[in-house]
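Standup notes
- DV: blocked on the single-chain target, sequence here:
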Amino acid sequence: MIVRRIREGRGAVLIEWFDLEQHIHRGWVPTEVLNEDMNVDAKVLSKAAPYGIPFEGLLPSTTIEPVQLADSLRKRGLWTAEDILRNPTDIAHALISCLGFHASQVQTYVREFEQERKEV
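- DV (later): unblocked, structure below
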């Protein structure tokens, strides 16, 4: 897979790549596995030391019911195509409201992740 070099240090390089489903990843691999054409074998990528926080664990699979979204949009005054096209921020707020999810939850997750990492 084609990767992008982010930075190097101590015999390793931090790279970024997209998997076959177009999900973005970053990880550390030994410098010697990176060749001039920036192509790294998928087996090597699967063993890359992960970089960053695994946000995939942040939310369980979440489903928004259509009626729930419709109510949330309408409560924000979004009733027509014109309303929707003029107020993209309100759409985002409606979706966030449906998820019942707030920035403080992300921060709590990150703090807990960091604490667990320090304990290992």
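- Follow-up: The first strand starts at residue 4 and ends at 9.
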